[in-house]
## 1
Amino acid sequence: MSMAWIQAGFFSDALGMCVNCNIILPMRDVSQPDRTKRPVLWLLHGAHGSCDDWLRYTNVERYATRRGLAVVMPSAHMSNYMNMAHGGRYYDYVSQELPDKMRQMFPLSDRPDKNYIAGLSMGGRGALMVGLARPAQYAAIGCFSAGLDVPATAPYRDEVLGGQSPKGYADIRASIKKLTNSRRVPVIYHTVGTEDPFLSAARKAQEVLSVLPGYNYHEAPGGHEWDFWDAAVRAFIEQLPLKDEPDTWR
Amino acid sequence: MALMHVHHYSDVLGMNMDMDVIIPEMSRGQIGQRAKDTQGKLPVLYLLHGMSDDHTIWQRRTSIERYATEAGFAVVMPTTHLGFYTDMYRGPKWFTYITQELPHLVPRMFPQVSTQWEDTYVAGLSMGGYGALKCTLRAPHVFCCGAALSAATDIVQRYEGYRHGEQYLTDVFGPREHIEGSFNDLFAAAEDLAGQHEDLPGIFMWCGTEDFLYDENVRMRDHLLLLGYDLTYEESPGDHQWMYWDEQIQTVLQWLLAGRGQ
């Protein structure tokens, strides 16, 4: 198995502009027939970051290779993965248009049991928000170094929220309430470093999230930094409940 | 329109390779473009660069992305570096990579791309024109037709005063005295295929009348016509330059569309 790295540029109708996205795609021996749709990890960057971050600062490609996992890394700029009060409709882009487009262009599974979403910091909250608002779309969520709220100090907070508190899909607490008695909840892997400034936010989130079945919380030494996220994404990928049944395309 | 910079491992070459891929897509809001409403699988054009260039050059020197969107073609732009799209005498198996590995790999990576012979085309300029003709004549089961712009058609000619030196050409094609009539000789390739194939592939050629390769393009034209090929040959004032290739690749796409009855 080898991995192809694809730097894609395309037009987003949700955002009304061109966007960049990185894709890591497992490729099998070309002499063998292969009509397999790959399981997919949707991997989100943090504030001030971009679609290149995970590739540049971690070994995610190596970890994904071992499990035959495709990884899609979009850019969402400073949006918090929300439909911004003053800005683009990033939630629509990341949760709906991007999966639709990527599955059209690449051999990626659309089965909920083969789709996973994770991210760090702003992307960690984004992964929780998207995954819990659309629990039928993902089998697992990875939230690294984040809590449930958009931090008061978050850059562009007013542009994102417009002075309001998050509502609807963006209100993670409301999504959790809805899921409390649901049997179909994504597995959650939540981790934070003990030196991370968001440690207390993560601990508060833990109290709320622990009502959900399949919620796992970990603290480990480390700060708000890439050493920690490299280990986090590795642990997350190693624990993914990957199933073997093939998912094929024609 | 989507542009993909692809970095992938080639089993045939035993190394990582780069290529650019254009996938046409319908979008409502992108300004200044007309996208064709594509249905079903996408026809695919393998587009080959010339000497001194790489897989990015068609993007940089022409507006191929815009033309391909309007035509509704996926475009795959690979590279074989200075290797003439040839299984080298001393070096990598570039021809096998282009004609066997990529046509399998590309539709797997991009499931919208057709795997059908009648949807698979090849074109190129200069050294890539040589490559396109070679793919069309030596891998006619893969490519249904091909287009060559300002092509190097006579590799024996390349040995005359070649600036990279004869050693390099020997590494690519083998000893000079063995080239005539060999697998790498396009004139022989045209004869071999004409001798065994009832339906000869469609070929498009263009060359500028001031091009240093003009004479050998005329010779190839006459050779193909004599052998009964379905050749569309065009020439016009011009030399070996991108301003002509930018125009001519649009003609090639129109020619391909006409062949599809569109």
## 2
Amino acid sequence: MNVAAEAVAEQSASRPASGQDAVVHARGLTKRYKNAVALDGTDLEIGRGRIVGLIGPNGAGKTTALKAILGLTDFEGELSVLGMDPRRERPLLMREVCFIADVATLPRWIRVQEAIDFVAGVHPRFDRAKCERFLSRTKLQPNQKVREMSKGMIVQLHLAIVMAIDARLLVLDEPTLGLDILYRKQFYQSLLEDYFDEDKTILITTHQVEEVEHILTDLLFIRDGKIALSATMEEMGARFAEVLVNADKVEAARALKPVDERAAVFGKSIFLYDSADPEQLAQLGEVKRPSVSDLFVAIMKGTYA
Amino acid sequence: MNAIMKSPFAWLLKREYWEARRGFFWAQVWTAVVLLAITVLSIITLEVFRSRLGMHINVGANGTDMNALLNNALSHNMSLVVRGLDASMLSFATLGGVVMTFVVFFYFLGALYDDRRDRSILFWKSLPVSDTATVGSKVLSGALVAPLITVGVVLAAFVCNQVIYSLWFAAHGLNPFTLIWAHIEPFEVWLHMLAMVPLYLFWALPTVGWLLFWSAAVRSKPFLWAVVIPIAAGALNSWIALLGIPHIKVGFFWSQLVARSLLSVVPAGWVTVMNPGNLSDAPETIRHFGSYAQMAHVFATPEMWIGAIVGIALIAAATWFRRWRDEV
């Protein structure tokens, strides 16, 4: 782990836990595969009514963490999801938890009508009328089979089903991978408009950080099976700042111990600061809030080195 | 009843049927349609040849009533009609059984594998359904629903067949009611077929468990694992026997281990443990092996129960894999 990440991790570890009503509460979550450690004593705390982005490079343990939360894999350590143990109480837990684990995982043989009938039959919290209302906004036909749909349409169907389930935690693992931009925008827009409220929690992993940035309330950076950063977006804005510095002030900027430095156009440099004094920064140049992806790149530096 | 049909488990069974209806239902229907078409075509062939030869069996020759003549002849040997009906019933049942064997075998081989391959398991697992219920619904679909559908379609096809014959007989002035429909015995065979369904469920368990186990356990190619392992083991054992090294009795190995793990889904496969009785007389054999007494006897054999227990253990293992396998 590089210095920047370490510093960040130290600070996030000091954040107080949100207590009993946590949707997800994990302590020392560990999962070892034959020749790799996917989760290395991970601590997690996700509160109610949040939209959390779980962001990390490939192989950082994102999917394993989600699988543990969804009770799809065994693990060591302590984990409670909505007060339940996902290992032992999975069927009960899945009444309250929903997930879209990947794009286009609906069975290819099923028809729209059959999918709705089936979910209505097995899920006590599914609202058929709601689902049909969502579907009426799409071009999907009741008799259409999944194998006859485009990837975007499959996601529309899946999302319509999931949004009609009154779950308390929704987990999305790369839900828009490979979709065109129209479907991707529509996907997150629908979630915000028709689904999310203060009693629901959404946990998202994605590589397309820019797309979810504006809807997230919380950020979790994961690296090498550990949480490298855990912060709300407000904390992020207060803590991190990006300054565009002219060549003549570079030495002064370095003296303020930036967590990252990268070159910009016209000989300028961009410096990223964690918890620096805003007044001092303002003297160096133009200050702005870093994007999640820039912050991510800075903190994950050296991951693939 | 309504409450049962609306229970989550009933929906699991419905889902299995939706996915497998081509094999469970349509394969049976098309088999029956082909057999019925053969019946119709043979009747047409017969009629064409008859008219070319200028024969008229429906009009009594020299004023003799053909109907009465035939009735008279048959009343002396009714078993001839019964045998004919038995034979046509048997041809429907046999072909339906062969088709069902293939359908059920591959159904179980893919039951816990296909949705892992196309990752739709992630959708099924996002619903509040236990893995025990999922696997249970698959066991019942293949070993109970599929045979029931087969019996139903075979019965319907048989009735259609008799209707075709009746029309043909009637067209020639023969009374189909006394000649065909008055013979209750073939209809009784239906009840026996229905009674065989629960027997089938229990007898098939070792193969059901064996196929489900590999379907749930392997990363790819469940067919190879499920089929090659028992056959290779059987061959190895035979080879060891040939060398004179201590081995498991060759006949036992093939019939009790290899055949039971792969072929127990063959309908009426339990004839091997039946009392031989009087098997020489062909039509009697059919009645003999379909008799309730023989079915009850099968339930009393150790082959039945040891096989069932092994099958249930394998199903439990398959359920464990379904729960904890997490390569997707």
